[in-house]
Structures are given as C-alpha cells and as structure tokens.
Amino acid sequence: MVFGVGLLVNAVLVAIPVGGSVGALLGIDAHRAATGQKPLFTGGNSDDGMSNGGDSTGGGGGHDTITNNGVQHTLYCDLSYGITPPSKTEQYTLNPNQWGVTSDSTGNGLCMNVTTLVNQTYAPQTAPEFSITWQFDHGPQTAPVHGYPNIRVDNVLPKEIDQISELNLDLHWTYGVGDTPAESTDVQALKNENLATNVAIDMFLDADADKSQNASEAKFEVMVWFWMSNEEAQPHGWGNPGISRTLDGTKFTLYTGKNDKEQYVLSWVTDVMTERFTGDIYPLITDLYNFGGSDYPAKDDYLGSLSFGTEAYSVNSNVTFWAEQYKIDIKS
Ligand SMILES: *[C@@H]1O[C@H](CO)[C@@H](O)[C@H](O)[C@H]1NC(C)=O
Ligand SMILES: *[C@@H]1O[C@H](CO)[C@@H](O)[C@H](O)[C@H]1NC(C)=O
Ligand SMILES: *[C@@H]1O[C@H](CO)[C@@H](O)[C@H](O)[C@H]1NC(C)=O
Ligand SMILES: *[C@@H]1O[C@H](CO)[C@@H](O)[C@H](O)[C@H]1NC(C)=O
C-alpha cells in the first residue's frame, strides 16, 4: 500500500539539460551540517522552510521570474525561503537554506533556480526542476558549511519506521563548473576548482513524532551520501568506518558520530561518485535499528523528515548542481 509520496523531479532527458530538479529540504533551523554547526537562523526569519514563502506559482515576492508558455523560472538567492509551489499532485518544499552564511562569508553567493508550471499540473509524481549555482570561499575551520539547499517531501511524514516497507529512490544528478547544468559530472574539473561539497539525503528520526520533524530536536540524523567531493566535506566519524551494505551495485559505508548538539549523526557514504541510483534504501534504516541500543534508532521511532540536496562548503569558481531526476516513493 502506498501511503506516500512519489516525487519525481524533473526529468526531461533531452540533449540539452534543462535545469534541475529536486531535493528535499529542511528549513534553516532544521539542518545541521555533517560537521555539526549550529544553524544560523533559529526562528524569527521570514521563513523557516516549514511554511510557504512563495506565491501561487512559487515565484514572486520580489524574485526574478521569467515566464514562457506557462513555464516559469524563478531565481531565489535568499538565505532562507520556503518555496512550496502549489501542485495538483505531490507537494514538496524547496529552500536555498544558506544557514551557515554570516556577514564574514565571502564569495559569489548561492541561488536556486526553480522551474514551475503556471497551471500547477505537473506530470504524475513529478516535481519542479531546480538547479543551484554557488561559490563560497573557505569559511572558518569550525564553520565550513554555508548551507544545504534542498527539497523536502511534504505531507507524508512523520511515519513510524516499522510501518514503512520500502523507500524507493530514482535519482540522477550532476555537478559541473559554471553557471548552467552539466550533462555529466567531471570530477577532475571540479577537483581543480577545489570543490568541497556532498550530495546527500538527510533524514531526522526520533521516538517522539513532533521532535522527529524538528531538525534541532530530533535525536537522530541519518544521511545517505551519493558523493563526498573531498575530505574537507566529511561525515562525522570519518576515518572510523562501520559496516557496509551494497544496494543497486552501490556500496555504502556507515560512519557514526555526534554533533555539537549531541545528536547522533549516522551517515551512509558511497566510496565513489554516484550520479545515478535506482533502488530501495530502506535496508540502510533497518540495519540501524537492528543494532539495538540507545545509540541507534528503534524500529518504532518516527521518520520525521526527508530532504535531498547538497551541502555547500567552498569552491574556487561557480559550480552548478542539477538534480535532473529525483523520484522518491515511500511505501508502507
Ligand atoms: C534557470 O533555469 C532555466 C532552465 O534551465 C534557464 O533557462 C534559465 O536561464 C535559468 N535562469 C538563470 C537566471 O540562471
Ligand atoms: C500545463 O502547462 C505545461 C507548460 O505550459 C503544459 O506543457 C501542460 O500541457 C499543461 N498541462 C495541462 C493539463 O494544461
Ligand atoms: C555565480 O553564482 C552566483 C550565485 O548563483 C550568481 O549570482 C552569479 O551571477 C554567478 N556568476 C558569476 C560570474 O559570479
Ligand atoms: C524546533 O526546536 C527548537 C528548539 O527546541 C525550537 O526553538 C523551534 O521553534 C522548533 N522549530 C519548529 C519548526 O517547531
């Protein structure tokens, strides 16, 4: 029985890339970096990512919107802005979520380019495309992350994890140098620009349903990394690998640690850049509750939120992240 969501992001596989797609997200006070930095904005901001900051098409609010034949491209360069484009199908919220940017941060900044349909009629299971173009110089060593632009699944969670049977993903993303989406990820070209980032799903879990939806209060943060560009962007517990599991031919290795809020951060990290992934990642959750004990979630804990995006650390020149396709289907 499907209770959930099907969130297919984008998808036109044409020769010319159209900008990006999706990802989940968490509001600003929601996401904490893998390195455990405090969110910069805890409430009081115009939007915490939990509410709708956009107008009826997801644009507006003084944002630059180009409209062409019922298709709108809107650029959001805000530090935090919840974009919940009205949709007659699945609902999701996008957010530039630049929670680590301070008055001392330097660089070209970060903008999220979201494509919406004026008629609000997306193809089944299809979310708006998006891409993210950014460049930041190194932040201080204690606060290297500038943000986690992402897309979050709405209306499906919280859900007890033992009431979920599958968490199917169908994913294709790219990262490239420059201001437009790349057709494929040229790792060497990005290394030459000293890119420090990851591409990851970010989930929060707790025994309490309300806390599981609050990234500051949830006991567990569980991440699934599809790329770690270099060791500057490393998960908690790096250097001390745990168990591994292979899904869809992709090997994920578990790293565990605690952040500065004493939350347990459990990260499954691929050892190679994984642009495409099609498969059920639910076994990565069952492995955790099968460990037992208080350092791991229990099977009757709640999954409160699930987001997909990229953590922006630093890079020499502009890079663009494009989630060409993001489909998530949570089955109970
Ligand atoms: C936003 O993305 C669309 C589709 O890829 C592109 O046509 C448009 O130029 C982009 N806008 C900006 C400001 O980059
Ligand atoms: C909605 O708008 C898009 C873009 O203009 C168009 O391709 C699509 O056919 C429209 N859908 C409906 C049901 O009108
Ligand atoms: C670089 O990215 C920023 C943020 O998306 C954008 O405002 C800027 O126009 C891009 N290009 C240059 C040359 O800075
Ligand atoms: C999340 O928890 C923090 C800390 O208790 C609280 O300040 C914040 O308002 C909560 N956020 C939401 C969206 O409930």
Automatic annotation (TrEMBL):
Its EC number is 3.2.1.151. Keywords: Carbohydrate metabolism, Glycosidase, Hydrolase, Membrane, Polysaccharide degradation, Signal, Transmembrane, Transmembrane helix. Residues 51-63 have a biased composition (Gly residues). One of its GO terms (biological process) is polysaccharide catabolic process. It is an enzyme of class 3 (hydrolase). Belongs to the glycosyl hydrolase 12 (cellulase H) family. This is xyloglucan-specific endo-beta-1,4-glucanase. It comes from Penicillium egyptiacum. The lineage of its organism: Eukaryota, Fungi, Dikarya, Ascomycota, Pezizomycotina.
